Task: structure prediction
Amino acid sequence: MKDDIIEVWDNRSQSYSKVVQGGMASSYESRGWQEIFTDAMGPGRYKVLDVGTGPGVVAFLLSQLGHEVTAVDLSEGMLTAARRNAAQYGLDIRFEKGDAEALPFPDSSFDIVVSKYVLWTVPNPAKALSEWYRVVRPGGKVIYVDGNWNTDLESSWWRRRWKDAARLSTALSERQYSPRERKDFSNSMWEMLWSTHADRPAQDLNMMGEVGFENISTVHIPNRRVLSGMRYFQHGYWKGNFLVRGTKGSREGPTENR
Ligand SMILES: C[S@@+](CC[C@H](N)C(=O)[O-])C[C@H]1O[C@@H](n2cnc3c(N)ncnc32)[C@H](O)[C@@H]1O
Result:
């Protein structure tokens, strides 16, 4: 199943990279995400791992804030796009091929692990969360953002129509999402994804607790917080995102700034 999922992301890497470049070009969107992550991370400069970086957007935004960022993804297409984008933005980020469920790093390698729009698409989210826990140092944090992509649309006729209109306008204006012969998520893949059947973020909070995180919390992120104008029309048809945060317990006390 994982190979099929990564093939979909490989196929989407070019069009997805265009979406990310559009977001980077919007100061409203960039600043919005920087504020959201900074609020969750707390003040300071950190050694950060971005899991499932895709074309690199979270890695870029945190690197611009002065954090030392490493980023992993399993899709070669996404990593190629991320490296090209990083060169374009003049950012020094270490990109590596790596599986969210089996990270290629020793225990306690990072102050903070971040991830955006990734947990929903991994086969075993509890395994991924325990890996993220393993590579963060005691007192460090795991912070991720995700959404209810499938259920938001299933439950609302007008959101589905909005998505169709947004996709059409994007395809016409930027020639995206067009190659029909390429593999995309099939109905059977959606069925197999855990997130299609999950009550989120309630289930996320349970999984975080079972992995051993402390100070677990979640916050809703309305689309208006990070999208404006045409970008809101093109990408705002979901109900919004949620951010989940947890700390790895430490005898030394709470997270310290470096
Ligand atoms: C929706 S994209 C999100 C990209 C980026 N984080 C963002 O916010 O735009 C999901 C990304 O997760 C990656 N991914 C999916 N499963 C993965 C896994 N098991 N390990 C690492 N990356 C994975 C995909 O290749 C894809 O780049």
